[in-house]
Amino acid sequence: MGKTNVRCVIGEKNSNSFLFCRFMDRKPSVTKCSWCSKNPLLERYHDEEWGIEERDPERLFECLCLEGQQAGLSWLTVLKKRQSYRERFHSFVPEKVAGMSDAEIDEALDDEGVIRLRLKLEAIRKNARAYLAFRQSGGDFSKFLWSFVNDSPVVTVPNSFADTPVRTSASDAMSKALRKLGFTFVGSTICYAFMQAVGMAVDHDAGCRFSGVPRR
Ligand SMILES: [Zn+2]
Predict the structure, then answer these.
(1) What average pLDDT does the chain have?
(2) What is the CATH classification number for the domain harbouring 130?
(3) Residue 123 lies in domain
Protein backbone atom coordinates (compact mmCIF):
# COMPACT_ATOMS: atom_id res chain seq x y z
CA MET A 1 0.00 0.00 0.00
CA GLY A 2 1.42 3.36 -0.99
CA LYS A 3 1.22 6.43 1.15
CA THR A 4 -1.92 8.51 1.12
CA ASN A 5 -2.16 11.32 -1.38
CA VAL A 6 -3.59 14.56 -0.10
CA ARG A 7 -4.75 16.07 -3.31
CA CYS A 8 -5.91 19.50 -2.25
CA VAL A 9 -7.76 21.43 0.38
CA ILE A 10 -10.71 23.41 -0.86
CA GLY A 11 -11.70 26.68 0.78
CA GLU A 12 -9.51 26.24 3.84
CA LYS A 13 -6.18 27.60 4.88
CA ASN A 14 -3.76 25.29 3.11
CA SER A 15 -2.13 22.54 5.14
CA ASN A 16 -3.32 23.89 8.48
CA SER A 17 -6.82 22.69 7.82
CA PHE A 18 -5.57 19.18 7.17
CA LEU A 19 -3.84 19.18 10.54
CA PHE A 20 -6.96 20.66 12.09
CA CYS A 21 -9.08 17.89 10.62
CA ARG A 22 -6.71 15.24 11.88
CA PHE A 23 -7.02 16.82 15.29
CA MET A 24 -10.81 16.73 14.94
CA ASP A 25 -10.59 13.04 14.06
CA ARG A 26 -9.07 12.22 17.44
CA LYS A 27 -11.87 13.93 19.33
CA PRO A 28 -15.23 12.35 19.99
CA SER A 29 -17.62 14.09 17.67
CA VAL A 30 -21.08 13.69 16.27
CA THR A 31 -20.45 15.92 13.31
CA LYS A 32 -20.99 14.34 9.94
CA CYS A 33 -21.04 15.29 6.31
CA SER A 34 -24.01 17.54 5.71
CA TRP A 35 -25.40 15.40 2.87
CA CYS A 36 -26.27 12.56 5.23
CA SER A 37 -27.59 14.50 8.20
CA LYS A 38 -31.27 14.53 7.35
CA ASN A 39 -31.87 10.85 6.70
CA PRO A 40 -31.08 7.92 9.03
CA LEU A 41 -30.47 5.49 6.15
CA LEU A 42 -27.99 7.87 4.52
CA GLU A 43 -26.41 8.56 7.89
CA ARG A 44 -25.83 4.88 8.54
CA TYR A 45 -24.45 4.42 5.03
CA HIS A 46 -22.11 7.35 5.61
CA ASP A 47 -20.94 5.98 8.96
CA GLU A 48 -20.53 2.35 8.00
CA GLU A 49 -19.72 2.26 4.30
CA TRP A 50 -19.09 5.46 2.39
CA GLY A 51 -15.42 6.06 1.72
CA ILE A 52 -14.19 2.88 3.41
CA GLU A 53 -11.56 1.20 1.29
CA GLU A 54 -13.03 -1.70 -0.66
CA ARG A 55 -10.66 -4.12 -2.38
CA ASP A 56 -12.88 -7.11 -3.02
CA PRO A 57 -13.49 -7.35 -6.79
CA GLU A 58 -17.07 -8.62 -6.51
CA ARG A 59 -18.03 -5.95 -3.97
CA LEU A 60 -16.49 -3.36 -6.28
CA PHE A 61 -18.54 -4.81 -9.11
CA GLU A 62 -21.73 -4.49 -7.06
CA CYS A 63 -20.92 -0.96 -6.05
CA LEU A 64 -20.18 0.10 -9.62
CA CYS A 65 -23.46 -1.38 -10.85
CA LEU A 66 -25.48 0.30 -8.11
CA GLU A 67 -23.85 3.66 -8.78
CA GLY A 68 -24.88 3.19 -12.42
CA GLN A 69 -28.48 2.67 -11.30
CA GLN A 70 -28.30 6.07 -9.64
CA ALA A 71 -27.89 7.91 -12.96
CA GLY A 72 -30.39 10.78 -12.96
CA LEU A 73 -31.67 9.91 -9.47
CA SER A 74 -30.52 10.35 -5.89
CA TRP A 75 -28.30 7.85 -4.12
CA LEU A 76 -30.97 7.54 -1.44
CA THR A 77 -33.37 6.14 -4.05
CA VAL A 78 -30.88 3.40 -4.91
CA LEU A 79 -29.95 2.76 -1.29
CA LYS A 80 -33.59 2.15 -0.38
CA LYS A 81 -33.79 -0.38 -3.21
CA ARG A 82 -30.43 -2.05 -2.66
CA GLN A 83 -31.81 -5.13 -0.93
CA SER A 84 -34.26 -5.73 -3.77
CA TYR A 85 -31.43 -5.42 -6.27
CA ARG A 86 -29.44 -7.99 -4.33
CA GLU A 87 -32.40 -10.35 -4.40
CA ARG A 88 -33.12 -9.86 -8.09
CA PHE A 89 -29.48 -9.90 -9.18
CA HIS A 90 -28.16 -12.91 -7.27
CA SER A 91 -26.26 -10.85 -4.69
CA PHE A 92 -24.24 -9.45 -7.60
CA VAL A 93 -22.28 -12.67 -8.05
CA PRO A 94 -21.00 -11.99 -11.58
CA GLU A 95 -21.32 -15.58 -12.85
CA LYS A 96 -24.95 -15.72 -11.80
CA VAL A 97 -25.82 -12.26 -13.10
CA ALA A 98 -24.13 -12.94 -16.45
CA GLY A 99 -26.28 -16.04 -16.84
CA MET A 100 -29.60 -14.30 -16.15
CA SER A 101 -32.29 -14.99 -18.73
CA ASP A 102 -34.38 -12.35 -20.48
CA ALA A 103 -37.34 -13.68 -18.50
CA GLU A 104 -35.54 -12.88 -15.25
CA ILE A 105 -34.90 -9.33 -16.44
CA ASP A 106 -38.58 -9.06 -17.40
CA GLU A 107 -39.59 -10.23 -13.93
CA ALA A 108 -37.30 -7.67 -12.36
CA LEU A 109 -38.97 -4.98 -14.48
CA ASP A 110 -42.22 -5.75 -12.70
CA ASP A 111 -40.64 -5.34 -9.27
CA GLU A 112 -41.20 -1.93 -7.69
CA GLY A 113 -38.25 -2.70 -5.45
CA VAL A 114 -35.85 -1.84 -8.28
CA ILE A 115 -35.66 1.03 -10.76
CA ARG A 116 -37.88 -0.22 -13.53
CA LEU A 117 -35.91 0.84 -16.58
CA ARG A 118 -34.98 -1.95 -18.94
CA LEU A 119 -31.73 -0.35 -20.07
CA LYS A 120 -30.55 0.03 -16.49
CA LEU A 121 -31.41 -3.51 -15.50
CA GLU A 122 -29.90 -4.98 -18.64
CA ALA A 123 -26.78 -2.94 -17.92
CA ILE A 124 -26.14 -5.01 -14.80
CA ARG A 125 -26.15 -8.22 -16.82
CA LYS A 126 -24.02 -6.64 -19.54
CA ASN A 127 -21.54 -5.46 -16.92
CA ALA A 128 -21.37 -8.93 -15.38
CA ARG A 129 -20.48 -10.34 -18.78
CA ALA A 130 -17.81 -7.68 -19.27
CA TYR A 131 -16.46 -8.41 -15.78
CA LEU A 132 -16.17 -12.13 -16.55
CA ALA A 133 -14.52 -11.50 -19.93
CA PHE A 134 -11.98 -9.22 -18.25
CA ARG A 135 -11.24 -11.79 -15.56
CA GLN A 136 -10.96 -14.59 -18.12
CA SER A 137 -8.37 -12.52 -19.95
CA GLY A 138 -6.29 -12.55 -16.76
CA GLY A 139 -7.39 -9.19 -15.42
CA ASP A 140 -7.75 -8.42 -11.70
CA PHE A 141 -10.77 -6.11 -11.44
CA SER A 142 -9.73 -4.63 -8.11
CA LYS A 143 -6.15 -3.88 -9.17
CA PHE A 144 -7.45 -2.49 -12.45
CA LEU A 145 -9.83 -0.04 -10.76
CA TRP A 146 -7.40 1.00 -8.04
CA SER A 147 -4.75 1.69 -10.66
CA PHE A 148 -6.64 4.89 -11.56
CA VAL A 149 -5.62 6.34 -8.18
CA ASN A 150 -2.20 4.70 -8.17
CA ASP A 151 -3.45 2.12 -5.67
CA SER A 152 -3.86 4.72 -2.94
CA PRO A 153 -6.81 6.83 -1.70
CA VAL A 154 -6.90 10.45 -2.83
CA VAL A 155 -7.91 12.58 0.16
CA THR A 156 -9.69 15.90 -0.17
CA VAL A 157 -11.04 18.07 2.63
CA PRO A 158 -13.91 20.08 1.16
CA ASN A 159 -15.97 22.58 3.16
CA SER A 160 -19.09 20.79 2.01
CA PHE A 161 -20.16 18.15 -0.46
CA ALA A 162 -21.00 20.92 -2.91
CA ASP A 163 -17.27 21.68 -3.08
CA THR A 164 -16.29 18.16 -4.14
CA PRO A 165 -15.75 17.55 -7.84
CA VAL A 166 -18.33 15.55 -9.79
CA ARG A 167 -15.61 14.10 -11.99
CA THR A 168 -11.82 14.15 -12.19
CA SER A 169 -9.21 13.15 -14.74
CA ALA A 170 -8.98 9.82 -12.90
CA SER A 171 -12.73 9.18 -13.21
CA ASP A 172 -12.59 10.24 -16.87
CA ALA A 173 -9.86 7.67 -17.47
CA MET A 174 -11.69 4.96 -15.51
CA SER A 175 -14.90 5.61 -17.43
CA LYS A 176 -13.13 5.39 -20.77
CA ALA A 177 -11.34 2.16 -19.83
CA LEU A 178 -14.52 0.53 -18.50
CA ARG A 179 -16.44 1.40 -21.65
CA LYS A 180 -13.65 -0.14 -23.68
CA LEU A 181 -14.10 -3.36 -21.71
CA GLY A 182 -17.81 -3.37 -22.54
CA PHE A 183 -19.26 -1.87 -19.36
CA THR A 184 -22.22 0.47 -19.56
CA PHE A 185 -23.72 3.14 -17.24
CA VAL A 186 -20.15 4.02 -16.29
CA GLY A 187 -19.92 7.70 -17.22
CA SER A 188 -17.27 9.78 -15.52
CA THR A 189 -19.64 11.21 -12.87
CA ILE A 190 -20.85 7.69 -12.04
CA CYS A 191 -17.22 6.57 -11.80
CA TYR A 192 -16.39 9.45 -9.46
CA ALA A 193 -19.35 8.69 -7.18
CA PHE A 194 -18.16 5.08 -7.19
CA MET A 195 -14.62 6.17 -6.30
CA GLN A 196 -15.98 8.11 -3.32
CA ALA A 197 -18.10 5.18 -2.20
CA VAL A 198 -15.25 2.65 -2.23
CA GLY A 199 -12.61 4.88 -0.68
CA MET A 200 -10.54 5.68 -3.75
CA ALA A 201 -11.56 9.30 -3.25
CA VAL A 202 -12.01 10.37 0.39
CA ASP A 203 -14.19 13.47 0.37
CA HIS A 204 -15.68 13.89 3.83
CA ASP A 205 -16.62 17.48 4.75
CA ALA A 206 -14.05 19.42 6.77
CA GLY A 207 -16.35 19.28 9.83
CA CYS A 208 -16.98 15.53 9.61
CA ARG A 209 -15.32 13.26 12.14
CA PHE A 210 -14.05 11.08 9.27
CA SER A 211 -12.54 14.00 7.39
CA GLY A 212 -9.05 13.84 5.96
CA VAL A 213 -8.19 10.26 6.85
CA PRO A 214 -8.77 7.14 4.73
CA ARG A 215 -10.74 4.36 6.43
CA ARG A 216 -10.15 0.65 5.97
ZN1 LIG B 1 -18.35 12.44 6.42
Answers:
(1) 89
(2) 1.10.340.30
(3) 54-202
